[in-house]
Specification:
Helices cover about 40% and strands about 5% of the residues. With about 190 residues, the chain is mainly alpha-helical. The protein folds into two domains: about 1-50, no CATH class; about 50-190, no CATH class.
Length: about 190
């Protein structure tokens, strides 16, 4: 919870607002635009600016043993998490989100599964920069998912049962499981929904 934040340019009294004697942000009493302004900073028109959670994550990332788990979202890609250095890590209500068929059998063949994984994570050694970056991102995702999937089962016994068909309860449950799975020396991750 972040209190006392808003899109005002300067502190403003009701009289100043009525007289328009101070600069005011556009669409002040709308919900979506001021919320986006707070989440993503004052300049979101041309590029995606760092969000509030992402800016906090940038500051706190050095305290985590794995910076990838600094900003975790249990639902979607919230506008509060874009950051300058840390990356958002997205999970589902059941935990890590896996890429299908990169482990086990693909069409009844383990070598097909290994080939598929190799295709997704390969490097062209600079011949194709976009393909190389996609391979780096995919490999980082696979590694992070493996780490989280390994840690979560042990933590699941520490979290009480959740009501069925309750999306918010499912999100909060995965947040609690991730917090329970963290190393004792790590600060808790920052979450957004």
């Amino acid at each position: 919870m972040v209190a006392n934040v808003g899109p005002l340019v300067t502190p403003t009294t009701k009289t100043q607002y009525n007289n328009r004697s101070v600069p005011l942000p556009p669409k002040l009493f709308s919900h979506k635009r001021p919320a986006n302004r707070v989440a993503g900073g004052p300049c979101r028109r041309r590029r995606r600016a760092p969000g509030l959670g992402g800016r906090v994550g940038d500051i706190l990332a050095g305290q985590n043993t794995n910076a990838l788990f600094t900003c975790i979202s249990p639902l979607g890609a919230p506008s509060t998490f874009p950051a300058n250095s840390v990356l958002q890590y997205q999970v589902s209500s059941s935990g890590a989100i896996s890429i299908s068929s990169i482990t086990g059998n693909l069409f009844g063949s383990t070598s097909a599964s290994a080939g598929y994984r190799s295709l997704l994570t390969r490097s062209t050694a600079g011949a194709n920069l976009v393909e190389d970056e996609i391979g780096v991102i995919t490999n980082r995702s696979i590694t992070a998912n493996d780490q989280l999937r390994t840690a979560l089962p042990a933590a699941s016994t520490l979290v009480p049962a959740i009501p069925a068909n309750n999306g918010l309860a499912s999100q909060l449950s995965v947040v609690a499981r991730i917090i329970a799975a963290r190393e004792p020396s790590e600060p808790p991750a920052r979450f957004s929904s």
